[in-house]
Automatic annotation (TrEMBL):
Gene Ontology cellular-component annotations: cytoplasm
Protein name: aldehyde dehydrogenase [NAD(P)(+)]
Superkingdom in the source lineage: Eukaryota
Enzyme Commission code(s) on record: 1.2.1.5
SUPFAM superfamilies the UniProt entry points to: ALDH-like (SSF53720)
Amino acid sequence: QSAFEAEVSEISISQNEINLALRNLRAWMKDEKVSKNLATQLDSAFIRKEPFGLVLILSPWNYPLNLSLGPLVGALAAGNCVVLKPSEISKNTEKVLAEVLPRYLDQSCFAVVLGGPQETGRLLEHKFDYIFFTGNPQVGKIVMTAAAKHLTPVTLELGGKNPCYVDDNCDPQTVANRVAFFRCFNAGQTCVAPDYVLCSPEMQAQLVPALQSAITRFYGDDPQSSPNLGRIISQKH
């Protein structure tokens, strides 16, 4: 990631999640009064939010800080214990999380587990009270299958395809600027990054040169040498 991308998509978002929880935690913890019906007229009627218990967070490599700390903040704020398994692919971030987080969090209710698919598989053999997974649908199926054995509730944030439909009434250069920016942001490794464009032949004739112009304006004549263009994390990806 470029410095700008890291600040916008990783550091700032993580800080905002922490600040949001700190500002609102007392309000979130309060019982929520609800209206009564005929059967509950003589009772107190309210919703009380309680922790799930032990939460497993499996975070990905494309936004290794944001997608680790965001779920972590929410789980801890809700009163849960957490096991965090960062992606082994983003090795530097994995190392930092494992070294830094235990300094500030109570290790009796928080742990970082390092390793690859084998370690993840062994984790999934255990019973958790909630699992939060971000990644591809293939691994998502494995996570959900493991969770189903214990009826463990899950959040699966999975990738997919994102077509970008361009109407003939759109301004080609405005569209090109937006598509080029979000397609190239974080080396294209964002779950909502545009994958392909659907448009008429007439719009295509205008859009292609507009995209070329946008890419040149953002990243120069040689994008490969631009410090603003992110680099993919591995040859495999």
